[in-house]
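Cast an eye over this sequence plus tokens and explain the fold to me:
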Amino acid sequence: MTSIDIAELDIRAKIVEIDRAIAQTDQARADADRKRQEIRLAPWMILLSLLTLVGASFAAGAAFFKLLG
């Protein structure tokens, strides 16, 4: 092997390391975006849960009064 081949292998190894680092950065950025979206939607999820609870309670109360009356 000549020194040119060794230098070429070192460059390819560095390129692989850089590609791996870029992939990890992209994955971390995607995870952060997903978390940000979940945090942004959390109040709406609570509101939807409360509306569902109120609707179910109203239906149960109406069925109970219908059963009695």
In short: DSSP finds one helix and no strands in the chain. The chain has a mean pLDDT of 89. The CA atoms of residues 25 and 65 lie 59 Å apart.
